[in-house]
Amino acid sequence: MIFRQMFEPVSSTYTYLLGCADTGEAVLIDPVMPTWQRDLDVVNGLGLRLVMTIDTHIHADHITSASLLKREVGSRIATPALDALPCTDVGFEDGVPLQIGGLRLDPMHTPGHTDNHFAIGAGDRVFTGDALLIDGCGRTDFQSGDSRALYESVRGRLFALPGDTLVYPAHDYKERRVSSIAQEKQRNPRLGGDRTLEDFVRLMENLDLPYPKFIDYAVPGNKRCGVCPDDLPEHLREYCSDMAASRQG
């Protein structure tokens, strides 16, 4: 597997490129609008052909570049089937593999950050979206978030993966790039160790995080697979090349 991890610094989002060396087909997981050209340049520079983009969930802190990339190179847009977005080409489901050339990707329904959130397994690694972050987890106070569901998603599903499975999150705010299931099970301060469900729910209820700065524009834009809303305020109109920071964890 050809693999690249790319970072968008304003929303602290990681975009992941996975490519099949045999067929030249490639997929981008969680692409971000302002960096679409960079991402496409990386794909092309590796001699690959972008055939699909995958969004792990409807993001609240950035707008996906899925539609823009489809327009440029014809890549199919894959989003959770549970979201039933009209702009989706491939609605993926829990336990039903996606095939990119010779690469098998395994969607895992991991609700809690959002009700229709998914992680994506790929061999020895898992792309956890906003559900499991390095030493943290995504918020549960908007978009049908549910702390109890997130606890079960992480501890019941993700932590059931082999300990040496590499964990690649959708965000990190401290320049960390990768973790492992074993590491997160042992030391994740929110969900690791002997943290009980009741402890976790209480912790999440008392985070007192500010309202996400971009959510009212990002969510409608992402429900259209990546469109800057027409009612974007003047001070945010540079969003399509920049973003207002809005931490998700």
TrEMBL record:
GO molecular function: metal ion binding; sulfur dioxygenase activity
Any single Pfam family the record assigns to this protein: Lactamase_B
Domain Metallo-beta-lactamase residue range list: 12-171
Residues passing through the membrane, by range: none
Database matches in InterPro entries: Metallo-B-lactamas (IPR001279), Mito_Persulfide_Diox (IPR051682), POD-like_MBL-fold (IPR044528), RibonucZ/Hydroxyglut_hydro (IPR036866)
Any GO BP annotation: glutathione metabolic process
UniProt cross-references to Gene3D superfamilies, sorted A to Z: Ribonuclease Z/Hydroxyacylglutathione hydrolase-like
Keyword annotations: Metal-binding
Entries under PANTHER family matching the protein: PERSULFIDE DIOXYGENASE ETHE1, PERSULFIDE DIOXYGENASE ETHE1, MITOCHONDRIAL
UniProt protein name: Glyoxylase, beta-lactamase superfamily II
Species this chain originates from: Dokdonella immobilis
Species lineage: Bacteria, Pseudomonadati, Pseudomonadota, Gammaproteobacteria, Lysobacterales
